[in-house]
Fold this sequence. Notes:
Layout lengths: L4 H12 L1 H10 L5 E5 H7 L1 H9 L1 H14 L12 E5 L4 E2 L12 E12 L2 E11 L5 E5 L22 E3 L5 E11 L13 E7 L11 E15 L2 E17 L11 H11 L4 H7 L9 H12 L4 E2 L5 E2 L5 E5 L5 H11 L4 E4 L10 E5 L7 E5 L1 H4 L4 E5 L6 H12 L2 E6 L2 E6 L3 E6 L20 H4 L4 E5 L5 H22 L8 H9 L7 H14 L3 E2 L1 H17 L11 H17 L4 E2 L1 H18 L3
Parallel strand pairs: 1-2, 3-4, 9-11, 14-21, 14-22, 15-18, 18-21, 23-24
Antiparallel strand pairs: 4-8, 4-10, 4-17, 5-6, 5-7, 5-8, 8-9, 10-11, 12-13, 16-17, 19-20
Helix pairs in contact: 1-5, 3-4, 4-5, 7-8, 8-17, 13-14, 16-18, 17-18
The site of adenosine-5'-diphosphate has 14 residues, from helix 9 and helix 13.
Amino acid sequence: MSYDPVSKWEEFIRSRYWDDLLKLAESYPSTRSLIVDFADLDRYDTEFADDLLENPDVMLDAAHTALQEIVLPVDVDLSGAHVRIVNLPQHLKTRDLRSDHIGKLIAIEGQVRTATEVRPKIVRAAYECQRCGHVFYVDQSGTKFIEPYECPNEACDRRGPFRLLPKRSQFVDAQKVRVQESPEDLRGGEQPQTLDVELGDDLVGRIFPGDRVIINGILRSYQRTTQSGKSTYFDLFLDGISIEMMEQEFEEIEISPEDEKRILELSRDPNIYEKIVRSIAPSIYGYEDVKEALALQLVSGFSKRLPDGARIRGDIHILLVGDPGVAKSQLLRYMAKLSPRGIYTSGKSSTSAGLTATAIKDELGDGRWTIEAGALVLADKGIAAVDEMDKMSPDDRSALHEAMEQQTISVAKAGVMATLKSRCALLAAANPKMGRFDRYEPIAPQINLTPALMSRFDLIFVLTDEPNVERDSHIATHILKSNYAGELTSNKHNSSINEEEIENATEVIKPEIEPELLRKYVAYARKNVFPMLTRVAMERFKEYYINLRSQGQDGNKPVPVTARQLEALIRLGEASARLRLSNWITEEDVDRVIKIVESCLKKVGVD
Ligand code: ADP
Ligand code: MG
């Protein structure tokens, strides 16, 4: 190094961060961090900035010393303060970490999956020698506790016994979190990889399972142990330096000016609804009404804060119940892939956290409680596609009410308490209790879900599998064609098949709007369009709702009609207007919504 890092830091802070330092000095010790933007360092001195990335331990130590040495106009000792670097130039994915990265300052992007409770961690252990009474300190920097070997008092020099003095030792708050790759970064079917992160002091308690974050830190490794002793393999963890929150749900989708032009053009197409419906799961035949509802779910309504602080969700929850083999799972998988932040999971979920969240004691916490996020938390601001929901655990069953309506999940177990966010739209599928629907009995009792839970869905579709020669023949043609369409297009030189036949076969499964553009369209709508009710639309919804209520009074309706349904109508209306990027919910939207709601009610109802 061609310079003294401590004076370099002093110079840098004096010239670029003086005001921030003064602010820190004033509020210290209740705030303890000087946040430094890496870009400022880079502009100040590129070599200095590069050295920080390459040798973060040395450089951050120097920064810490500089903080203490700078002469301040106020008399405070900043020895407990930290320099926290944010905005690193490059973000890595867990799967790209290599041994070269060990010891370097890196940024990891992902989603918090689990977080332990906050507990003190010893950083400087005070010992008393029981032979001579000498008191000395052992610094604890690693993950393993270091005990003294012999008394440092030369006159004594004996090997103990020593007594730990907790009151004279130094502790910091510590927390471990496990970060996993975000669903949108995974290509079809890949399992997300995780990285453990250690956080200390004022970084603890700030992030929760489900949060999307960038964590900057120093990558470290530790040796694994197996039953037969130490292993030659090492594991990685990140020693956290700073945290940045990623709040914008659609920032990961870039919309160029050309994209915007195409989006606006599409929105003016009079057949936009048909086009979008034909772009949803084109390999599945029929179900136009379901697909229209799924299109509405993609854009959803928007959440609102009422003047009294209450919140109304904007996400649309949809339930598909039906006989086996009617393409429920297929639809769910398609939507999870299409949605910008979609997750596909099963009610019988493989993870211990299930659909909602759980508190467990596991190896991550070393005996501490750990909160783990389930699918609805991980799908925050996206779509959670939950297959076989009727088979979920009893814990999930009870937590789901809150998760769907308030869109939060409260965990309270053995002193750990947390409220996680689950602002996602739920797309669920369930099979009938007895395997197949009995067509001559009412539908609702044949589903293993309570009325309270069912009433939280905005739309419930019943898909029965009744033989119908005409429809069956269409489905058969459709499946047969789409099965070989991929083959045909990739194998065009096969001369025995002519172009026309290829056209014929591929047209059925080609989405009208390609998924990439549709995703951008949805992101654009959700970001920019917040439709309001026109007076006519308001009157129409009111009239329809009152009508529903009076019909619902006959007492044997499986799903009671409550004010929830009115909220559902509004949400669906908003989504309908959003789909054509309109700022007003008009009669056209009301008609569409009523048509969809009616098609659901007819089947769920007793008739
Ligand atoms: P479920 O989850 O309802 O039991 P699946 O999604 O597993 O059913 O569907 C079974 C198979 O039948 C899938 O391969 C699906 O593509 C096919 N299938 C069922 N209905 C249709 C349809 N309407 N159009 C195209 N394929 C269908
Ligand atoms: Mg299925």
